[in-house]
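name: query_chain
kind: protein
chains: 1
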Amino acid sequence: MATLTRQQANALLLEGVQRDLAESATIHTLLEKQFEAAVRHRSAELTALADGLAPLLEAMEARRQQRLQLVRALLGPDATMAHYGASLDTAARAAFDAAWTELEAIVRACKEATTRNSQLLAEQYSVMQRVLHGEDELYAPR
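structure:
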């Protein structure tokens, strides 16, 4: 990473958080669509949604890594986002903390949606496996 001034690093950090906020809202919307497609067994739509999610998730991960590098460059190798927020002046801290709190909330919602979707898809797969391969005792008299 090229040498940046503190002001440039701060601008990059805030810009990354703002982009993550915007893209995580899109990701959450796609995850909700993914759930609906899974419920309705629309495999082509599931594939298209996965193709749409992948680049967004990769971009968020790249920004996360950049954030980590910037924070550590500014505050040392053990620095966290909490340390970074605390290092800002009052006005900048308030804006950053609000954006960071919002990002954490939407990321949690995305994780919950991902878990829900994964559980649904795993259950559907399990049902299909039982239908295709049967179960011991499936048709045995009771």
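note: The radius of gyration is 21 Å.
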